[in-house]
Design a protein that fits this description.
The complex is a heterodimer of chains A (229) and B (245). Chain A contains 10 helices and no strands. Chain A has helices at residues 2-6, 8-42, 44-59, 62-73, 80-104, 108-116, 121-151, 164-172, 176-204, 215-224. Chain B has 11 helices and no strands. Chain B has helices at residues 2-11, 23-55, 59-71, 74-85, 90-115, 119-127, 132-166, 175-184, 187-214, 218-222, 237-243. The chains are: A mainly alpha (229), B mainly alpha (245).
Chain lengths: 229, 245
């Protein structure tokens, strides 16, 4: 326990760095997945293609992806961009599927009603379909956020600093508490971000408190996620 | 792209296939760790998942466990267990870590497979006089298989990825080439190994995909909804498996 007391600064500094590395992939993944998920939901051809590619990308182990990306993109192994791009790819792979599922879960009768009262497709998407798909999209975003925060730690193997530093450093110096501190901090950050997303969902979608329909989708996401690490 | 040529040159060099550090030995280690961990995890998680799915009890705990497990950084967990169990027993520590990481996906696959079944199907089975045991074996397990295989699939891929990381503690596997390549700045070796790992993961994923298709009961496959976009809001086992391509 002494180690923690002596290294609070280090833990805090690495936590901040960890959060800083986690946010861009989560946000980018969300933004990129919206149009991709819509394409997958809307057209049968793109659905098969996109979901297959997303599934395949998601199977690539993270360390392998960190090694594959630099020569393809012409970036340095040790650059933060490497980690950011790799984790964005995973985020898109999870999110585009859940966006497609989410849009598919909107009751067709509601979609038709919206069209019947004169909504164009653009306005119908933003005013009707997107909000109703919200709970399932949020479930996907939560999975993405938590797994991204956990995956950032792998970056330490290629030299990108994060809480993963406590793992390798603690292992080399044989300090159990140091590794434990790293694991606990990663889990705490993940759970806090997860909770914040739930809160955000409640604020943006106040009607979801009573809605139970998202359960099956939620659990399916839970069953599918977790491939890459 | 020149680096890729070098990677393939490394990959297909004659010395890659001889000795204790040969590619086939490393791939064998990788597959061995993956297979045994998933098997042990399945032996633990499948009965537990079926118990939860059949009785409906304890699902909140199961959901919570799978959620929390996703937040757990696998690399940190391996290193932590190695130090706790003892540096001399690295394989055991790593195995425990792999099994722990594989359990949540399999558990979720097992109980959500039972849960996704239309309640009316189970009520009908009970109505025609099936015992609870028969309902489980003849109705719930066959209908839940596609989702269970899906859970095993995620678990296997997760373990393949984690075995790669476990090379850091000197466990072997294909990841060892990457870890030692990082230290030696041998980019051809790292890239070649990364390609092998990706192929390994894709092959495992593909095999599970095939099994998942084959395992759908005939009656279910016949009544399958052809367009998954217009699937019912409350998806049943049917819609679940057709959406999972």
């Amino acid at each position: 326990m002494n180690w923690i007391g002596n290294n609070l600064d280090l833990i805090a500094q690495l936590s901040v760095q960890h959060i800083r590395l986690s946010i861009p992939p989560i946000l980018l993944g969300f933004v990129i997945s919206l149009p991709l998920g819509w394409l997958a939901y809307r057209f049968k051809l793109t659905r098969g293609l996109l979901l297959t590619v997303a599934g395949l990308l998601f199977t690539i182990p993270s360390l392998a992806l960190f090694v594959l990306l630099p020569p393809i993109l012409g970036i340095a192994y040790t650059s933060e961009a490497n980690v950011t791009i790799a984790l964005t790819i995973y985020a898109v792979a999870i999110m585009s599927r859940s966006v497609a599922d989410a849009l598919g879960s909107v009751d067709p009768a509601i979609r038709q009603s919206a069209t019947a009262v004169g909504y164009g497709s653009w306005r119908r998407f933003w005013a009707v379909e997107f909000p109703l798909a919200g709970p399932v999209i949020l479930a996907g975003l939560r999975v993405t956020a938590v797994s991204t925060i956990s995956l950032v730690t792998v970056g330490i193997l290629i030299g990108v600093q994060s809480l993963g530093y406590l793992f390798t450093n603690g292992f080399q110096r044989r300090i159990v508490v140091e590794i434990l501190a790293g694991v606990v901090m990663v889990v705490v950050i993940a759970l806090v971000v997860d909770y914040l997303l739930v809160l955000l969902g409640r604020v943006l979608m106040p009607w979801t408190a009573k809605q139970k329909l998202v359960r099956p989708q939620l659990e399916r996401l839970a069953a599918q996620a977790g491939g890459a690490s | 792209m020149n680096l890729f040529a070098e990677a393939f040159a490394w990959l297909f060099a004659p010395e890659r296939f001889v000795g204790a550090d040969s590619l086939q030995v490393r791939i064998g280690e990788h597959l061995f760790y993956t297979f045994v961990s998933v098997l042990v995890a399945a032996v633990i998680a499948v009965p537990l998942g079926y118990l939860i799915g059949h009785t409906g009890k304890g699902r909140e705990i199961a959901v919570g466990v799978s959620g929390a497990a996703r937040a757990l950084p696998s690399f940190g967990l391996i290193l932590l267990l190695v130090l706790l169990i003892g540096v001399t027993q690295k394989p055991l520590a790593a195995f425990i870590a792999f099994v722990l990481l594989a359990i949540p996906s399999i558990l979720a696959g097992a109980y959500s497979g039972l849960e996704a079944i239309d309640r009316r199907v189970i009520d009908s089975a009970r109505a025609v006089g099936m015992t609870e045991w028969q309902i489980l074996w003849k109705v719930e397990i066959p209908l839940g298989l596609p989702l269970l295989i899906g859970g095993l699939r995620s678990a296997a891929l997760q373990v393949v990825a984690t075995v790669t990381l476990a090379a850091y503690i000197g466990l072997g596997g294909v990841g060892l080439y990457i870890i030692s390549g990082l230290a030696l700045r041998r980019f051809d070796q790292m890239l070649g190994a990364a390609i092998v790992i990706v192929v390994l993961a894709l092959v495992i994923d593909g095999l599970f995909a095939i099994v998942q298709r084959l395992i759908v009961p005939r009656g279910v496959a016949a009544g399958r909804d052809s367009d998954s976009r217009t699937k019912p809001v409350r998806p049943r086992a049917v819609a679940e498996s057709s959406a999972h391509q």
